[in-house]
Write a structure and sequence with these properties.
Length: 311
């Protein structure tokens, strides 16, 4: 059984115990304000079964319960996690090796990279994401694959992890940096949680906003740059629209400048060319008539980078 816990000292701590033996025991949701250690000790003392602890370290005053999260689960989420794990295998192998390492995953989402790290033999894994996410689909996958691993997931910011003094061998982020509002601060936090000069930060971010697929929506290439939002709003569901509205519009230059400002050393770096680059000429006049953007940003879909820091 996986254990979700947190000791991050944020102002709002909503602690929920979720007792779940996957499919054999119904999930109970107990919201505790105080004395949760007493319940924890009693639970194991009387041997009722396995225990998972979910702690939401909230950045705002709003809270979503675990039961509400499960009602909001997108369809086929387990299939999505498994398929996305293949993406991790393809793009992260060149820049990250989690084997026998303590790993922090920035933007852990539904747990795709948690699964990848566990399968790769990580010593322990910590996920951090400000959005509430149920880990039940990931647990189902781990159970089906007979993967028993302890890991933690924090609903928080990377800066909260750094403030708590936690340290890691590897900081990993996959398809998350295009969603992070303050990339300078986040990269600074990534640097501060590294254990030593042998520790690494590995980031793959894709698709970048100004690429043809940068909207993260099933629309025409670069349509979010040359058309009005009203014209394609009704083509997407609420999940995707929310994701689109919170994209940070980061350019490659913005990203590299944040790395430079935080004084990282670059060990490896590569870019992914836009999947529709051959069609750019067809759309370029409409794009430049609507916004000011460079050909470089229109042509780069993703960036992969491995970083180190000298302390």
């Amino acid at each position: 059984m996986c254990i979700f816990s947190s000791s991050i000292p944020t102002k709002q701590n909503h602690v929920a115990f979720v007792f779940d033996e996957f499919k054999s025991v119904p999930v109970l949701h107990l919201l505790l304000v105080d004395f949760y250690y007493i319940f924890f000790i009693l639970y194991f003392s009387i041997g009722l079964g396995e225990c998972a602890i979910l702690t939401n370290n909230l950045i705002s005053n709003s809270c979503i319960s675990f039961a509400q999260e499960e009602q909001l689960l997108p369809p086929d989420i387990e299939e999505y996690i498994i398929n996305s794990r293949k993406h991790s295998e393809f793009f992260l192998n060149e820049i990250a090796d989690p084997r026998e390492k303590s790993v922090l995953i920035v933007g852990s989402g539904w747990g795709t990279e948690i699964l990848w790290c566990i399968e790769k033999g990580a010593k322990n894994v910590v996920g951090v994401d400000p959005a509430p996410r149920s880990m039940k689909p990931l647990n189902n996958i781990l159970s089906d694959r007979c993967l028993i691993q302890r890991y933690t997931v924090h609903q928080a910011l990377t800066e909260d992890i750094a403030a708590a003094g936690m340290k890691f061998d590897l900081v990993l982020s996959n398809n998350a940096f295009e969603h992070i509002s303050d990339i300078h601060s986040c990269l600074g936090a990534c640097k501060s949680v590294l254990k030593n000069e042998e520790s690494r930060v590995a980031i793959f971010t894709d698709p970048l906003f100004y690429s043809s697929a940068g909207s993260h929506l099933p629309i025409e290439p670069w349509q979010h740059l040359w058309d009005s939002e009203e014209s394609f709003r009704n083509k997407v569901d609420d999940w995707l629209w929310t994701e689109y509205k919170y994209l940070n519009k980061m350019t490659v230059t913005d990203f590299l400048n944040a790395i430079r400002v935080n004084n990282f050393s670059v060990l490896k770096m590569s870019t992914v060319k836009d999947r529709n680059l051959g069609l750019l000429q067809m759309y370029k006049s409409k794009i430049v008539n609507n916004i000011r953007v460079s050909d470089m940003d229109l042509s780069i879909e993703g960036i992969s980078i491995e970083l180190s820091a000298i302390f």
